[in-house]
Structure formats: structure tokens, C-alpha cells
Give the backbone structure.
Amino acid sequence: MTAATAAITQYLQQQHVLTLCTQDQEGLWCASCFYVFDAATMCCYLMTADDSRHTQAMLANAQVAGTIAEQTEAVLHIQGIQFTAIAAKVAAAEIAAIKARYCQRFPIAKLKSAPLWQLQLQTVKMVDNRLGFGKKHQWQRQPI
């Protein structure tokens, strides 16, 4: 694992909210979603209702983008991620394991019944000003 991949993975594991950007016939739409990250597959998993605008947009167009960032006013402490991903409903064979992991991180999710989605990260750019102003780490999924 490269240093860039390790930094990106660690940051994704520490955070828990992403901004998901989708596009539908009405235009662009963003939604804040709780997620869990799987470093082995470089995927984020989220739970969202079938009737939400972003879910309907993902059903029509699986290409999504997003951000993950902490809120800080100190420029030298800025860290954050921009990503592109392919969205898909979690496969039936994986639902139980993914839901258990999701509910472990977000126990309130045990009270909700909603589909689980996988965001298979394709490209990731991480800004980490703690390493120097404008320092970036990048990762890209390799073609199979």
C-alpha cells in the first residue's frame, strides 16, 4: 500500500458523513449521508430510502461524485476528500454482513429499514494541509 493510499484509507475510516452528488432530469443534487468504509474493496456503504431524490438519481445514473471533509477554520488543519464512484445496491448475498457493520457504526440504523448502497470509489483526491499548504494524495482504481 502506498503512503497516499494509507493516508486516504485512514481518513475515510475516521470520518462518517459524506456529501453525495448525483444528477437527475432536474439537475444536480447533493445529500449528506452516513457511511462506513471498507478498505479492502475501497468502497463506502450507505443506507438510504428508495424514494429519496439521490436514490432515484443513482438508479438512473450510477456515476456519482462527492466530498468528505471536517469543518475547521484553521487553513493549516484542512483535510478533505473529493471522489468519484459507481453506485449500486448492495448484492443480496452481502446485505446481512454490510448491514451488521453499518448498524455497529450507527446503532440507530437498526430501527430503520432502507436499502444499502455501495459506492465503489473510482478516483480519490485528498487535500491534507497538515503536511503543507495544498498537499494532495491521489488514488485511482486500476482497471481489471
Q: What stands out?
A: Helices lie at 3-14, 53-60, 95-105. The longest strand covers residues 116-128. The chain has three helices and eight strands. The first helix runs from residue 3 to 14.
